[in-house]
Design goal:
CATH superfamily: CNF1/YfiH-like putative cysteine hydrolases
Strand order of the largest sheet: 4-5-8-7-9-13
Distance between the termini: 27 Å
CATH architecture: 4-Layer Sandwich
Structural class: alpha+beta
Mean pLDDT: 96
Shape: globular
Strand content: 25-35%
CATH class: Alpha Beta
Low-confidence stretches: none
Number of domains: 1
Length: about 220
């Protein structure tokens, strides 16, 4: 059986974070159809219905109906799955550092609210991503962030810092009104047998094409 990861906060909703071996062949929900977008490190959110059969540039998907299985792919960036069970609204977001700074998570929450969700009812799970101990960055990188990101940088080697991407994503979610956030705390870089890592592959001079898949869907009523 293919191993996947789940969040206790999202337990009532069909969802999965894959490891490097991918998702199971069977879909999350019966009669479900996988929906993806061309991820471009943006703050663009699209409705899953609009993305069915299309190649749209965006970094998050939202849906308020059963059928679409919202999928994003990552290999160090943060996959974030969100749900308001009472409203019947789900979303999946790809939050690299550019998208997180640019507002992808706040825009995703806003798109859910437009479809009847309430921020204080939304639960969010941050899946496998590069964690602070593995994410060395320089002054130029840090300068791209607003001052509220300062707590997520700690000093490292001379002229360098260690950046906490999942922590910064959690901040952006909380600023959007999301109160319940589950960080699975799985570091893609330091677990080569479990996860693909773009940065690890780059450092090793190996191909960088491997990706994890994260998926969420509303069950059929």
């Amino acid at each position: 059986m293919v191993e996947t990861l789940q969040s206790t906060l999202l337990a009532p909703i069909p969802h999965a974070f894959s490891l490097k071996h991918g998702l199971p062949v069977e879909p999350l929900v019966e009669r479900g159809e996988a929906v993806r977008v061309k991820q471009v490190h943006s703050a663009i959110v699209v409705d899953a219905d609009a993305a069915l059969g299309e190649t749209l540039e965006a970094d998050a998907l939202v849906s308020d109906r059963s059928g679409p299985i919202l999928q994003i792919v990552t290999a160090d960036c943060a996959p974030v799955l969100l749900a308001d069970v009472d409203a019947g609204v789900v979303a999946a977001a790809h939050a690299g550092w550019r998208g997180a700074v640019g507002g992808i998570l706040g825009h995703t929450v806003a798109a859910m609210i437009e479809r009847g969700a309430r921020a204080d009812r939304i639960v969010a799970a941050i899946g496998p991503t590069i964690c602070q101990a593995s994410y060395e960055v320089d002054d130029r990188f840090r300068d791209a962030f607003p001052t509220d990101a300062d707590p997520f940088f700690v000093s490292g080697n001379p002229g360098h810092f260690q950046f906490d991407l999942p922590g910064f994503c959690a901040l952006r979610l909380s600023q959007a009104g999301v109160l319940n956030i589950d960080d699975l705390a799985q570091d893609t870089y330091s677990q080569p047998t479990r996860f693909y890592s773009f940065r690890r592959a780059t450092h090793a001079g190996k191909p960088t094409g491997g990706r994890q898949i994260s998926a969420i869907a509303l069950p059929h009523g």
